């Protein structure tokens, strides 16, 4: 292929793929179209249902027909019910609901470290150490940028682990013991960390490009690692979470010293963590760090549960409220 043709092909690819891969929010841009499609699907579903059971027919609410400008986020293209906060003011978040808000346990031990004891632990520990130094070198004191990009990676393991356990549950016709939900909740919690940081700082184009490349590599590497050894994969995540706790502690220290402006907490964080209205970035970092400490414990425990040694499993059973803890990753205190 000639040089001219190569240049033409690459510029065509960039024109076609660039906006999709690197634009700030392709989904929000497509929301109008999606909502139209959803409404069309809803109408189809409604007409299909009417042929089978007239009684069950659920007409599209009048609010939907009123204006095409209203973006609708729901499975069936039907407007979700109007939700309110405790004080009666309207609930403005679609990415989480009032019953998903919670108070983080900030009393959790943020200095806990799992000492690598066997070869799997050591491999996981040194893998994370090898990843840590270039990351620190790259970000140095740019804590906000570090936190934002860290969260784009941190939200991957829970989703991959949850997805693979989901498939395993289907293949084996057996229950998961609450682990699927726990891991997916972890991924969702990490994504909410990201949504919070995005309210404070916007990623630059090259940061988006880094995230794009890192996600492609990390997702696939973690997927393969989890297939090969869930024990290793969870241990790696446990150590990644330990590093996340450390980096948030550094962030907090610099906020205490006044090296960064302690801006007011974003509204999304106040609602998600049930924080007082006058909360600041410092309060937000404290609750996020508590979440990371919780993920650390959950993943170190999951690594033990993935072990084939039954005696080892029994040693680390969470006392009393095991089931409750595993079904709600945010409240686990292992
Ligand atoms: Fe996080
Ligand atoms: Fe985390």
Automatic annotation (TrEMBL):
Classification via Gene3D superfamilies: Alternative oxidase
Residues reported in the UniProt entry to bind Fe cation 1: 151, 190, 193, 292
One Gene Ontology term from the biological process aspect of the record: alternative respiration
Catalytic activity: 2 a ubiquinol + O2 = 2 a ubiquinone + 2 H2O
Topology in membrane: Multi-pass membrane protein
The keyword Magnesium appears for this protein: no
Note accompanying the cofactor annotation: Binds 2 iron ions per subunit.
Entry EC number(s): 1.10.3.11
Pfam families from the UniProt entry: AOX
Principal EC category: oxidoreductase
Amino acids binding Fe cation 2: 190, 241, 292, 295
Gene Ontology terms for molecular function: alternative oxidase activity; metal ion binding; superoxide-generating NADPH oxidase activity; ubiquinol:oxygen oxidoreductase activity
Cofactor: Fe cation
Top-rank taxon, per record: Eukaryota
Keywords: Electron transport, Iron, Membrane, Metal-binding, Mitochondrion, Mitochondrion inner membrane, Oxidoreductase, Respiratory chain, Transit peptide, Transmembrane, Transmembrane helix, Transport
Major subcellular location class: mitochondrion
Subunit structure: Homodimer; disulfide-linked.
Family membership: Belongs to the alternative oxidase family.
Name of the molecule in the record: Ubiquinol oxidase
